[in-house]
Structure formats: C-alpha cells, structure tokens
Amino acid sequence: MKFLSLILFASYIQSTDYIDYPHPFHPTTSSSGMVVSQSALSSDIGVKILDMGGNAVDAAVAVGFSLATTLPRAGNIGGGGFMLIYLKDKDEVFYIDYRSKSPKNSSIEKLLGTKKIPDRNSKRWERVDYTYLASGVPGTVYGLLEAHKNFGKLDLKEIMKPVIEQAENGIIVSSDLNYVIEVTPQLKSDQESLSIYFKNGEPLKEFSTMKRPDLANTFREISKYGIKGFYEGAIAEKIVEAMNANDGLITYEDLKNYKSFFRMPIAINYKGHKVFTAAPPSGGGITLLTALNILNNINIKKYKSDSTKTYHFLAESLRRGHNNRSHFVGDPDYFDVPISELLSAKRTKELITSIDSNKASSIDQVIPYKPRKESKDTTHFSIIDKDGNAVSNTYTLGLSFGSGVTIPGTGILMNSQMNNFAYRYGDKTDIGRGASPGNKFEPGKKPMSTMAPTIIFDKDDKLFLVTGSPGGSDIPAAILRVITGVIDFNLDIGEATMLPRIHKDWPYEGLEHERAVSRDIVRRLKGMGHKTEYETTIGSTQSIHIVDGVINGFADLRRPNAGVSVQSN
Questions:
Q1: How far is CA 321 from CA 317, 368, 473, 484, in A?
Q2: Residues recognised as catalytic
Q3: How far is the CA of 128 from the CAs of 106, 253, 413, 544, in angstroms?
C-alpha cells in the first residue's frame, strides 16, 4: 500500500506542469508610486518622500541630494544636469537645463596655461580634468530647487530632513564604493577628499561607515535658505575661498548669477509613440531622436532583438545620430542650433540613403549637415507618483568623483565639466566633437553633454516609459536599446534593459559591444565591415514602464547597488 502511494505521488508530480518564466529579469511592479535609481538607499529616501504625501518632483529633489552621499562618484551638488518633468493634470512635459557653465573670467590661456592649444598628449589637459580649474559653475542645487519651487508639494525642510540624517548618520561602504575610491587617483591629490574617502592612507573599507557631517551641514544651509543657501552666503564664500587659494576661476559673482533654465524639450513620433527628451545643450537628445527617426523607416521588428541585422541597423542609426551631434550642437544661448533641420524628414532621408543593409558605412559616407571622450560616470533616476506625475533626471560630476576636489568644510565634490568643450575648434587636423563649432569654448557658456533623460507616451497619449542612463557618449545607445526593446520587440522592461548593447559613434570606426553579444554575431558583424571592439558595459538605464495601468520598474544590473523602491500607499 505504501509502495502504491509512492507510485501515485510520482505520477501526480509528472502530470503537473513545470512553472517557468520567459527570462530571469523580472520587473518590480506597483499600483502606486515608484523610484528607480542607481542607489537603492536613495530610492528608499525618494519613496519615503512619496509616502509623506510628496509628489514625483519632491521625491526627485530628495533623491538628487541623497545621491551625493550614496553615490559620490556621480551623485552630486557640485555638478549639473537635465531634468524632464511630466505633470499629469497639465498634460505637459517641462525641461529644466541646469548644466554647469564656464566661469565668466575663464579663458583658454588661464585654463590650459598657454595661448596655443596643446597636443592631445600634453599633461596640460589634466588642468581641466583634475584641478580647481576643471570645474564649471555648479547647477545641480539650482535645478533641483527650481523644480521644487515650481512643482513641489512639500516644504523643503520636510524633503531635506531624511537627506540630512542620511549624510550625518552615514552609509555602509559597499564593495563598489570601496573599489571606485581605490581606482580614482585624483582623490588622493586633494587633502579634503583624502580625509573623507580614505583612512590611514587606505580607501574606506567595505562594511565600514562613511559619515558626511560637512555635507550634512551644507544640506542644512540649503534646507534653511534654499537657493541662496548655496549660491550666496557661507557656502558660496567657502567655495570662492578655496578657488582663490588654489588658482580656481569660479567667483562669488559666478555663483550669485547662476540660473537654471526652462527650455522646450525636443520630441518626435516613433512608431506611434511620442518621445520627449532633452534639447541642447544636450547632444544626447539629438543623437537619440536622429537614430529613432532613421529606425522609423526600418522594420527591425521582422528580425529578432538579438539578430545581426538588428545590431547593424542600431549601429548605423547611432552613427548618424552622433554625426548630427558632432557638428551643430552646443549651448543655445551662444549658438543657434538647427534642431528642426537636424531632425527633419529631409535630413533623415539623407542619412537613410547612405545605409547599406549588408555593409558597415565608412566615415566618408556619413556626411555632416553642411575628441575627447565624455566620462561615463554620470547617473540617472526615474520617478512616478501615485497621481501619474513623472520625473526623468540625469546629472553628472563629469569624471568619476569629478575633479576629485572637495571644498573644505562643505563636503562638496566639484565637477570636471570644463573638459567637455571643443577647445580645438577650428583645428582642421581634429575632426568630430573636438572641432565642433557649436561647442567651442567661450566664457559663461555651457558645454555640450550627451545626457538625455527621456519620457515617452503611447498611442493614446498615456504615460508609457520613463528612462535614461549614464555612460557619456554611450547614453543614446543604452536608451535606444531599451526603447526599441519595448516598442519594436514587445519586451517587458526587465528583458529590454538586459538586452546586450552595442555603441557606434562618429567619426570613430569602432563598434563597441558587450560580452553578452554572441561570438557568432560579432563574427558576422565583422564580415559586414564593422570594426568590433569589446566593452565591459554600456550605460545603466533606470526605467519605469507602464503596462495596462500597472507600473513596472527595473534597475539596470550593469552597475551594483541600484534599486527599485515602491510607494506603500
């Protein structure tokens, strides 16, 4: 009888279907609000603000400040960025440009120490990478507080309270934080940074606690006095004092006169979906929309998401997007960017004509309309609240930990954005962004950036996708892969995020690919004329995808410690 029971049980097991799933990258779902950022600790603070009754903008302010503690290599109050805001009741997308700008008294001679532009191999370029000269006037604090002033619900003091507590109490040092401190040499060159990120000459150990009392005090000044708490008064004076003592160029007037700007976002229709992203001085937005315009005319849906043809068309569209970016994009307050022409049907047709479906294009085939690489250590976060308002925000210090310079007594890491200008403008031996007329250096100007926070609406004009990525010039490639994964291949946001990525720039011939792109596909791409190059990871998208009213979030696994947090009510 016992033997019979075992037989019957085994028979039951065999008749029961095995429960399986299409892929291992499962989105987090919510019927309320959600925050997706590169730090789970900061995502939690954002959700805390939502639970307090704050909206997406309030949460964005908290996350933006919190990341200065949790992700110091990219989260910041000493840098700048771009923010898209969608307000459901107004049914409108707003764009805030809070990019860092060059000091008014800056000049090429002061920045590089010579009237003649030095050779690329010259150590003089380090002056705009790692010293006090490397920093543009920070825009982050102004941009976050401008968003709050216009669209926030909660009092600033309420928003800043958990941010201050986090900085004061400290965070546990992760293996990633320990590693990036260890491999960032400019931190050791600055005494203040050395005292924060090192102990006894060694990087802060994993599982130790990193407390930021000076940063907490700076947050208190901002909480109490708002914009003036950073751009005027004690904090501004400390920044200027440090600049004067170290041959920096930022003055009290530079800080006092800094302003962020509301600009019109740029948008196109992609296969029935309205795609909004950042306008110049972002070049990433132009790159992304150019690529999407091209793919509007190519049915990649008939190929698999990981087919050779798909990778080829992604590469060719990205290359032409970067071509547009490299020639006529810059600060719109200094340069008339021909946005409508760059994104026109005429220009798109011109670019498509040069694409061979079976062969990689050469540099000569991608004709311009009539380099120093950007740092990949940027960061992005996406937020939606229970009322359907959304924020897509990307900001940066430039290089990892920016210039490596921390203003004494403030905890403020300064940016290295002065290295983003085309100092070799006019030099015919330099092609691409290094010679871009739109991005030539000028005092008071904002350098071009590839940051491209993005918000997409579906065919019924309902909020569909909130996304963005760090990654320097890789940013459009990462976002493009997610968008096409969701729209063209009908993947969920987890699977679309983890699709293998490629990146192709202009004028460079190489096609970068992640290890996950199969060897067979790499071999076939080489056969088509692509000069393939291995790249560890490309971007790190933080995305929210709304499907049938359900909010789906996914934090890219390419960088550690990212996280999705969900509103509890």
A1: 6, 10, 11, 15
A2: 378
A3: 12, 21, 15, 36
- Do the beta carbons of residue 80 and residue 68 sit within 8 Å? no
Cα 299 to Cα 250, 295, 308, 314: the distances in Å are 50, 7, 14, 12
Kindly report the backbone phi and psi dihedral angles of residue 544, in degrees, each rounded to the nearest multiple of 5, phi listed first: -130, 125
**pLDDT tier, 376 (very low <50, low <70, confident <90, very high otherwise):** low
Name the pairing type of β-strands 171-172 and 209-210: antiparallel
Higher pLDDT among residues 553 and 4, named by residue: 553
Q: What pLDDT is recorded for position 18?
A: 74
Strands 454-457 and 412-413: unpaired
Work out the average pLDDT over 524-551. 95
Angstrom distances, CA of residue 383 to CA of 55, 92, 119, 273, 391: 9, 16, 44, 20, 5
Q: What average pLDDT score do residues 174-178 get?
A: 96
> Could you tell me which of 291, 469, 247 has the C-alpha nearest to residue 380?
469
Sheet containing strand 463-467, edge to edge, reads: 28-30, 550-555, 542-547, 463-467, 454-457, 273-277, 266-270
Q: What is the pLDDT of residue 568?
A: 85
Beta partners for residue 565, in sequence order: 35
Question: Cα(465)–Cα(482) distance, rounded to whole angstroms?
Answer: 10
In this predicted structure, the answer to whether residue 370 has a pLDDT above a threshold of 50 is no
Q: Helix, strand or coil for residue 189? A: helix
Residue corresponding to tokens 């201050």: 164
8 A C-beta contact, residue 513 and residue 533: yes
Q: What is the pTM (predicted TM-score) of this model?
A: 0.94
Domain with CATH 3.60.20.40 in the chain: 263-374+450-566
For residue range 271-296, list pLDDT tens digits in order.
Answer: 999 999 999 999 999 999 999 999 99
Give how far Cα 208 sits from Cα of 170, 198, 199, 353, 404, Å: 10, 11, 11, 57, 21
Alpha helices, DSSP H only, in 300-439?
308-328, 339-342, 345-353
Tens digit of pLDDT for each residue in 80-130? 999 999 999 999 999 999 999 999 999 999 999 888 888 777 888 889 999
**DSSP output for 428-487:** TT--GGGG-GGGB--TTPPPPB----EEEE-TTS-EEEEE----GGGHHHHHHHHHHHHH
* β-strand pairing of 510-513 with 202-203: unpaired
Is the pLDDT at 10 greater than 80? The verdict is: no
pLDDT band at 328 (very low <50, low <70, confident <90, very high): confident
| AA letter at 547 | V
Q: Give the architecture (CATH level 2) of 263-374+450-566.
A: 4-Layer Sandwich (3.60)
Q: Give the pLDDT confidence score for residue 368 in this predicted structure.
A: 55
Q: Please give the structure tokens belonging to residue 432.
A: 């691409």
